[in-house]
């Protein structure tokens, strides 16, 4: 017979206290002296390990098992089972994390379909956070394409069908209209349970431009969760100090609007002043509630991404990953590629296809580097770019050019000499490549396999080692399969892609060649970590450039010209330490850091300090507190 389990005491103060206590007490900031143990395993009896500081919680019994931040499942020790009234909820045996991992790995691998693996991992995240992160960290190469691109894209499309339980903060426009700023504040702080010191990072989207798959409505929470997971895996940002947020101003995705199971606000997107008021108020409330947090914007549509970044950057600690993160990763890749070709930024001719959020971010980032590092004027640097968008090469007088693209429009005189193979007289990618003879070809267009054989062959006629970066995600939207790019360039192309690809075969030598993954995931976790650890109120361009230089200095091609252009995403933690150190030192130099003196400035010592600060998936001892203490 089922016995009814008593409900938790939901009266104030305990209701608010459960999350507050978990979050507040979860963050016992590691110091080098208390956190010398850097292994990811857990000690034989966690409660007795003096190296790990405890977490405090008022939760017991079923409520403790249901709290993913604290749940250890079968790894609750016999003593903890007694103290936290867990004995009757758990089978007899006590298993260490290592044993739990073996079971979890077998369960993961028993699922063949990537989406089924995704669902498994998502529910593990909802149940036992330490096990989730330990599993992925141990099997990073296998799990990254599941929790991130490409599978996350499929999961987002299916969000309302796969939905089991929520993870994150859902902010819908009609609730905002009714409750105004107060509603947003209550939602973000969980009605006051979270206070200003509790959160380091807010990741948020309005879901209009998810990866390359477009408007995904409330399903965009999936990319937010994916990015937050990478902050934790890649840079050790404490998951208990992150807030995942989706703004739901409606959706223009007709398929979702017609779907009976759709879970978001069933309404077309609110735009104009109403939208701005929603986002402006959200930013103001988030910044006031968590004044030390970095606010990470993800996958906004291109009509809003730049506009909002420019508007909010002077006021808040905002970071737009698609603009700034992608630009940083691309600049590091290009720097590595140019070391191989023996060329420079200013000697490059760059054709970029898809001048939207990511494409323009990359263009501006490289353009600024040409000016700063190689002394070009803005006009001289702009002249190294040819941007091709949906109406072909962007040039003066062309209809449909967006304001953000304007400064890169080619002159009328230049295009007067070009030949169009298009019945509308537009200059497509082939026409542009033929006329320009570029050294670099970048794809951020979302147009699958649009770098065709004739384009790659034409480019390869004029340059020894064409640099080809098709970085649209997910895999299905990549502009060219790397094997094709290598075959069509006689094995000469230097390639990096946005989603992971298996190694390719050199068409002449038969050698296996690894393809670098040019994804902002290699850099944004560390940009965030550096900003958070240096308590910087802004992530400046200078801090980002310091991170780019650190990343480029880790390129495997520096020691082997046939190696991938970037470090493997599987090594992101080690990479993050170097990038974060560079970011922190730059923050200090620029006067952005608000805690100079509290961290070492000598590079190696700083790297050890950063490593020690990183959250690691280990079970920590638990201490029972009563709610009065929690308050
Ligand atoms: N690898 C990475 O780290 C990143 C990759 N991306 C990928 O880049 C792609 C673009 O993303 P966003 O810039 O956010 O999207 P977006 O929508 O802002 O930009 C896409 C651009 O491509 C243009 N376009 C559409 N059809 C075209 C055509 N036939 N020819 C040329 N251009 C065309 C659009 O007009 C738009 O300007 C996505 O697939 C996204 O996943 C985005 C950010 C990071
Ligand atoms: C990687 C990423 O941010 C994107 O594809 O949108
Ligand atoms: Mg993105």
From TrEMBL:
Superkingdom of source: Eukaryota
Biological processes, Gene Ontology terms: malate metabolic process
GO cellular component, one term: mitochondrion
Gene3D superfamilies for the chain: Malic enzyme, N-terminal domain, NAD(P)-binding Rossmann-like Domain
Malic enzyme N-terminal domain location: 125-313
InterPro entries in UniProt: Aminoacid_DH-like_N_sf, Malic_N_dom, Malic_N_dom_sf, Malic_NAD-bd, Malic_OxRdtase, NAD(P)-bd_dom_sf
Cofactor note: Divalent metal cations. Prefers magnesium or manganese.
Binding site for a divalent metal cation: 298-299, 322
Annotated signal sequence range: none
Database matches in SMART domains: malic (SM01274), Malic_M (SM00919)
Molecular function via GO: malate dehydrogenase (decarboxylating) (NAD+) activity; metal ion binding; NAD binding
Keywords, ordered alphabetically: Metal-binding, NAD
Entry annotation: catalytic residues: 148 (proton donor), 227 (proton acceptor)
Occurrences of domain Malic enzyme NAD-binding (ranges): 323-588
Cofactor(s) needed by this chain: Mg(2+); Mn(2+)
Region (Disordered) location: 1-57
Positions annotated to bind (S)-malate: 473, 519
PANTHER family on file: MALIC ENZYME-RELATED, NAD-DEPENDENT MALIC ENZYME, MITOCHONDRIAL
Sequence similarity: Belongs to the malic enzymes family.
The protein, known as: Malate dehydrogenase
Species: Pseudomicrostroma glucosiphilum
């Amino acid at each position: 017979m089922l016995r009814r389990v008593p409900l938790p005491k939901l009266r104030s103060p305990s209701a608010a206290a459960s999350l507050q206590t978990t979050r507040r007490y979860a963050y016992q900031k590691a110091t080098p002296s208390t956190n010398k143990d850097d292994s990811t395993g857990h000690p034989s009896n966690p409660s007795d390990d003096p190296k790990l500081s405890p977490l405090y919680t008022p939760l017991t019994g079923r409520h403790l098992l249901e709290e993913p931040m604290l749940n250890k499942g079968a790894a609750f020790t016999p003593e903890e089972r007694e103290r936290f009234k867990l004995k009757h909820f758990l089978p007899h045996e006590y298993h260490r994390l290592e044993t739990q991992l073996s079971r979890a790995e077998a369960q993961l691998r028993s699922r063949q379909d990537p989406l089924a693996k995704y669902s498994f991992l998502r529910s593990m995240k909802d149940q036992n956070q330490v096990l989730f992160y330990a599993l992925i960290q141990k099997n990073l190469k296998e799990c990254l394409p599941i929790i991130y691109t490409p599978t996350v894209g499929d999961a987002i499309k299916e969000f309302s069908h796969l939905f089991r339980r929520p993870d994150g903060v859902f902010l819908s426009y009609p609730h905002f209209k009714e409750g105004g700023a107060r509603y947003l504040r209550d939602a973000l702080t969980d009605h006051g349970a979270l206070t200003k010191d509790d959160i380091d990072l807010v990741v948020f989207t309005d879901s209009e431009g998810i990866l390359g798959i477009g408007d995904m409505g409330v399903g965009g929470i999936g990319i937010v969760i994916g990015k937050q997971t990478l902050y934790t895996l890649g840079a050790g940002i404490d998951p208990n100090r992150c807030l995942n947020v989706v703004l739901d101003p409606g959706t223009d995705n007709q398929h979702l609007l017609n779907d009976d199971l759709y879970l978001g606000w069933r309404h077309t997107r609110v735009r104009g002043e109403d939208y701005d008021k929603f986002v402006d108020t959200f930013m103001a409330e988030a910044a006031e509630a968590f004044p030390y947090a970095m606010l990470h914007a993800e996958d906004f549509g291109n009509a809003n991404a730049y506009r909002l970044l420019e508007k909010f950057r002077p006021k808040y600690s905002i970071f737009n990953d698609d603009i700034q993160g992608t630009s940083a990763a691309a600049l590091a890749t290009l720097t590595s590629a140019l070391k191989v070709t023996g060329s420079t930024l200013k000697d490059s001719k760059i054709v970029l296809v898809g001048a939207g959020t990511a494409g323009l971010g990359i263009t501006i980032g490289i353009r600024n580097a040409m000016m700063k590092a190689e002394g070009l004027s803005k006009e001289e640097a702009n002249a190294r770019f040819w941007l091709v968008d949906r109406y072909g090469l962007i040039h003066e007088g062309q209809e449909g050019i967006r304001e953000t693209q304007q400064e890169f429009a080619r002159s009328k005189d230049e295009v007067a000499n070009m030949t169009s193979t298009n019945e509308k007289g537009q200059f497509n990618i082939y026409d542009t490549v033929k006329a320009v003879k570029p050294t670099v070809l970048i794809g951020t267009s979302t147009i699958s396999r649009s770098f065709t054989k004739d384009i790659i062959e034409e480019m390869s006629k004029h340059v020894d080692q064409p640099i080809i970066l098709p970085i649209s995600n997910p895999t299905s939207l990549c502009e060219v399969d790397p094997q094709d790019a290598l075959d069509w360039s006689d094995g000469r192309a230097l390639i990096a892609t946005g989603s992971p690809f298996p190694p390719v075969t050199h068409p002449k030598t038969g050698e296996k060649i690894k393809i670098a993954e040019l994804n902002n995931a290699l850099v944004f976790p560390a940009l965030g970590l550096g900003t958070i650890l240096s308590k910087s109120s802004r992530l400046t361009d200078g801090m980002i450039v310091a991170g780019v230089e650190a990343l480029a200095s880790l390129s495997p091609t520096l020691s082997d010209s046939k190696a991938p252009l970037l470090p493997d995403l599987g090594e992101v933690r080690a990479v993050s330490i170097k990038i974060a150190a560079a970011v922190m030192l730059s923050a200090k130099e620029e006067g952005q850091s608000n805690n100079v003196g509290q961290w070492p400035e000598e590079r190696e010592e700083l790297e050890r300090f950063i490593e020690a600060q990183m959250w690691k998936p280990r079970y920590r001892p638990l201490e029972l507190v009563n709610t009065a203490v929690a308050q």
